[in-house]
Amino acid sequence: MSAAEQDAVIQASRRDILKGGGALTVAMWLPTGGAQANDADVTKSGTWAPNAFVRIDKDSTVTVLSKHTEMGQGSYTGLATIVAEELDADWNQIRVEGAPADVKLYGNLAWGGAFQGTGGSTAIANSYDQLKQAGATARAMLVTAAANRWKVPASEITIASGVVQHKSGKSARFGELVADAAKLPVPTDVKAKDPSTYNRIGKSAPRVDSKAKSTGKAIFTQDFKLPGMVTAVVAHPPRFGAKVKSFDATKAKQVKGVKAVVQFDTAARSGVAVVATDFWAAKKGRDALTVEWDESNAFKQSSDDLLKEYRELTKKPGAVARKEGDVEQAFAKAARTLEATYEFPYLAHATMEPMNCVVKIGQGSCEIWNGEQFQTADQTAVAKLLGLAPKDVKINQLYAGGSFGRRANPLSDYVVETAAIAKAMGTTDPVKLVWTREDDMRAGYYRPMYVHWMKAGVDAQGKIVAWQHRIVGQSIIAGTVFASNDPIDFTSVEGAKNLPYHIPNLQVELHTTKPQVPVLWWRSVGSTHTAYATECFLDDIARETRQDPYALRRSLLEKHPRHLAVLDLVAEKSGWKKQRAADEVYGLALHESFNSVVGEVAKLKKTPNGPKLVSVVCAVDCGIAVNPNIIAMQMESGIGYGLSAALTGAVTFKEGRVEQDNFDTYPVLRINEMPAIETHIVPSKNKPTGVGEPGTPVIAPALANALAQIDGKPVRSLPLSTQGVKLA
User: Fold this and answer.
1) Angle subtended by helix axes 628-648 and 3-12, to nearest 10
2) Residues 366 and 501 sit within 8 Å (Cβ to Cβ)
3) Percentage helix, strand, coil for the chain under 3-state DSSP, each rounded to 5
4) What is the 3-state secondary structure (H, E, C) of 110-138?
5) Closest to 481 in 3D by CA, of 567, 384, 549
6) C-beta separation of 342 from 716 below 8 A
7) How far apart are CA 481 and CA 277, in angstroms?
8) Which of 645, 283, 614 is nearest to 437 (CA)?
9) Distance (Å, rounded) from C-alpha 378 to C-alpha 375?
10) What is the DSSP string of 365-384?
């Protein structure tokens, strides 16, 4: 597919495993060392088992078992595309189901296969080879089955649109061959297609989840019901670190429908749950509850207190994350030095569907229904709480109404909370935990607050000879299974430590702080703040040295052809070099995250009511474009999410209490506020890289750089609303 064809498609668009006999199920596992077929068991019913990535039923339906959660990012469609390509299946026969929790089969290969979960924009990237091999293996077995039946060489068999055929005119749909195929040994040396022969990968296809979601048939956790199910609503402490001292449930129990009031304590938090026949009864009971909190060890600082501490830390050397050359010596010789400080608030994930979960505790077992993002962690944590083996905790994947990292919690906070409530009740009835929007805003977890101090030295010609970057903020991975002995939390410095610009003397430092505020990865993690600081500071340098921002970046990227290609493409498509109208200003930013490179140009128009963001031009190199339309959707989604945070996003504290509780105090971008967006994909033959997150961190610096073109004043603190900046 040519770049022009991709652009035309993208810009035209926007907005038990085994269920009976006669099914062919193919399971492939690719550990770090390569492909390995799982042990096959051919049963009398003609079904090849045990667990699987691909299942083909008698009616020719091809079901892809997705180890990754569908949270709106289009992973189900992308994963299905890979399998459909290798099978030469008809798109209309493709279905996707969430796979069960099974780390051996479904471990995330991008994380070494040791954990099962969705995150880090890894769904397509880590599954690409794995699903190609699974699809190719299923195809080979169908071809062999047909060749045996028709007594012809397998080399003479072809498949097109889900039909297996021979030049003699004989043909069969997949379903007609699965019983025979299931009896065959599973081949271990099947060769997947060469990308040059692709006829589906690289072309857009309808999303596999669109119809169910648009007709209301898709089941999210909030929709899920079981016989006898009760609903829990929780009173969480008003300050982090507080514990339940005592509570009076007298009035709560008088609310019609309330069945129980129980206290729980988990590693994440303490609380009191009101359990009732339905949500409204539980909420009314929670509102009638009286709780006395022990706040002796609670967080009681305000945001201003933390900012003051962080600013002081920027004046002191931190742990060195990257060091090249000698910055002090280079600063001493520089013709001029520039300094800047950038400040970023805590951010809420603000998912469309607040946290929720369904748990049913049985005799020596537990079953969970959830928009599941972190199977390994959740399964292990719940098993520990209940004194079970992880294998006795069954997890059922449902659709998730957004996450942005929130549902991938190392402490499994809200999932364990649900199990703890069910355990405290001593019930075998299913318990559904429902957080209100207010709970979701105030109970944690957040993107950490950060302060960056930067200093650059330039020579007489304006060339950057020294670059020092000091970052202050909380660690996301401290105290989790992802922690190491390294004092540097890589999530705090990503995007800064791997800065692609060639600067001979460069140093990145980190101060890790330890407030009691619970923090977590947030869409594009560390890049949410490092991209802003680095790209805005680079524009500051360009402005102070009278250099074109595009030309300056180009001069620093000779060792990074991918970045250079993206930069050139976004400059070309945005008309960066062309004459602009007097009321037009452009802002540019470029950043790599999750192995993808994204460039964005924000186009502003000056109006009597202030600057208006008219459009955003985006270019991305994400390897092979499995489904260009999904990539465009994710760039648009990421830009909208990042723009929302840049304009108004901030979680603030006053004496330890969160000041925001709903969308009136934590505004999010509305659809009528979205600019026009066009996405251009760099043609590539490399394996796919991430697309769910890389579009997010680039929009804020692109917008800020455009705003600075108007009056020459850099924006060094987010959100823009706190700096008096409001778009028309």
Assistant:
1) 60
2) no
3) 35, 25, 40
4) HHCCCCCCCCCCCHHHHHHHHHHHHHHHH
5) 384
6) yes
7) 37
8) 283
9) 5
10) EEEEEE--S-HHHHHHHHHH
pLDDT digits (tens, 9 = 90+) for 421-456: 999 999 999 999 999 999 999 999 999 999 999 999
Radius of gyration (C-alpha) of the chain in whole angstroms: 27
Backbone angles phi, psi at 175, to 5 degrees: -60, -25
Taken as a whole, the chain contains a residue count of: 728
In DSSP notation, 350-367 reads --SS-SEEEEEEETTEEE
Give the SS3 label for residue 292. Answer: strand
Nearest alpha carbon to residue 513 among 316, 238, 237, 716 = 316
In the block, tokens 């990535």 appear at 53
Q: Calculate the CA 195 to chain-centre distance.
A: 26
Query: Could you identify the residue written with the tokens 């991305």?
Result: 620
Domains in the chain and their CATH numbers?
3-215 (3.30.365.10), 221-297+355-434 (3.30.365.10), 303-347+446-723 (3.30.365.10)
The single-letter code of the amino acid at 421 is I
Quickly tell me which residue has 């390995």 as its tokens.
Answer: 36
- Lowest mean pLDDT segment, chosen from 452-461, 473-482, 622-631, 687-696: 473-482
**466-497, pLDDT tens digit by residue?**
999 999 999 999 988 888 889 899 999 999 99
What is the per-residue pLDDT across 224-243, written as a single tens digit (0 to 9) for each? 999 999 999 999 999 999 99
pLDDT digits (tens, 9 = 90+) for 304-320: 999 999 999 999 999 99
Question: Would you say the pTM of this structure is higher than 0.90?
Answer: yes
- What's the count of helices (H) and strands (E) in the chain, helices before strands? 19, 31
Q: Are the C-beta atoms of residues 704 and 586 closer than 8 Å to each other? A: no
Contact 37, 188 (CB under 8 A): yes
Q: Which of 566, 615, 589, 595 is nearest to 700 (CA)?
A: 589
Contact of 66 with 122, CB cutoff 8 Å? no
- Contact residues for 353 (Cβ-Cβ < 8 A; gap 6+): 220, 221, 222, 371, 400, 401, 402
List C-alpha distances in Å: 624 to 566, 692, 716: 14, 15, 36
Read off the pLDDT band of 592 (50, 70, 90): very high
Distance of CA 392 to the CA centre of its chain: 28
Phi-psi region of 495 (alpha: psi -120 to 50; beta: other; left: phi over 0): left
Residue bearing tokens 């330039």: 458
Q: And the tokens for 28?
A: 């492939």
Q: Which residue in 413, 480, 412, 403 sits closest to 118, CA to CA?
A: 403
Strands (DSSP E) along 385-532, which ranges? 393-397, 431-434, 450-458, 464-474, 506-513
